[in-house]
UniProtKB/TrEMBL annotation:
Pfam families: DUF485. The chain crosses the membrane at residues 36-54, 66-92. Keywords: Membrane, Transmembrane, Transmembrane helix. It comes from Amycolatopsis balhimycina DSM 5908. PANTHER family: INTEGRAL MEMBRANE PROTEIN-RELATED (PTHR38441), MEMBRANE PROTEIN (PTHR38441:SF1). This is DUF485 domain-containing protein. It comes from the Bacteria.
Length: 119
């Protein structure tokens, strides 16, 4: 009967995760995510804060009729929903191009390590 000694304790899922977490690919993935999320969050919060401040302090401007019973405040309110959908679409496109390929590589590496651990 022969055994193969790898020279150390077997990898656990925790050590595999630690290696993945410390990898260059994971750091790149986290960096790419932050490059999108932080600026987009700041832009959206500023846009929302503008809407709230205008609604609170610029009653005359927000109640300006654009056509019929539609005023500037209503348009700005609806644009909040539109901007949410636009940001979601931008994120999906960004994730498909920039995040998913790196995440897939990390997943393949982890699954490969897990397969080695079970063998």
């Amino acid at each position: 009967m022969s055994t193969t000694d790898t020279g150390g304790p077997p990898d656990t899922s925790e050590t595999i995760w630690e290696r993945a977490h410390e990898s260059t690919e994971f750091r790149e993935l986290r960096s790419r995510l932050r490059r999108f999320v932080f600026p987009m969050t700041a832009v959206f919060l500023l846009w929302y804060l503008l809407y709230v401040l205008l609604a609170d302090y610029a009653h005359g401007f927000m109640s300006t009729k654009v056509f019929g019973n539609i005023n500037v405040g209503l348009i700005f309110g609806l644009l909040q929903f539109v901007s949410t959908f636009v940001i979601t679409g931008l994120y999906v496109r960004y994730a498909n191009r920039k995040l998913d390929p790196v995440a897939e590589k990390i997943r393949e590496d982890i699954e490969g390590d897990s397969a080695k651990e079970q063998a």
